[in-house]
Design goal:
The radius of gyration is 38 Å and the shape is elongated. Helix 1 packs parallel to helix 4. The chain has helices at 4-14, 21-28, 32-40, 48-58, 62-65, 77-131. By secondary structure, the protein is mainly alpha-helical. The protein has 6 helices and no strands.
Length: 140
Amino acid sequence: MEKLSDLCRDQKQTITPRKTNQDIAESTDLSVGTVAQFFRGDIKNPSVYTAGPICREMCVSMDDYFDIPREASPPDPDAVSAEADNLRIENAALHEQLRQQQKSLRMHRLVTLILLSIVALCAFALVVDILSPTLGWFRA
């Protein structure tokens, strides 16, 4: 597989108007030394921030080099509309489910509060019963 720097170097030699390393460095905000090292292949693993601007300036597609597929065509408006409708329906169903769960949670909290009140009343009655020998369940 040919290196990206080789593709850019070949393109640099055939591009018109001819561009110098200085021209490329100025348009990419890279140093002339970095541009020269890239074209010589001295940079073994150039970063995307180095290779990207140089490739853009040389009209070399990094997508083609890395076999990144391009989207064939824009999405169908009818399909997008149908998907949006499906998402609205799903959203409404989820909101209804959330409302039901919130209602159930309120009911559970109420039942828990009532049961805790009964337990607290029984505990109070037991303490009063133990402290008063003439009243309550246990009598002396």
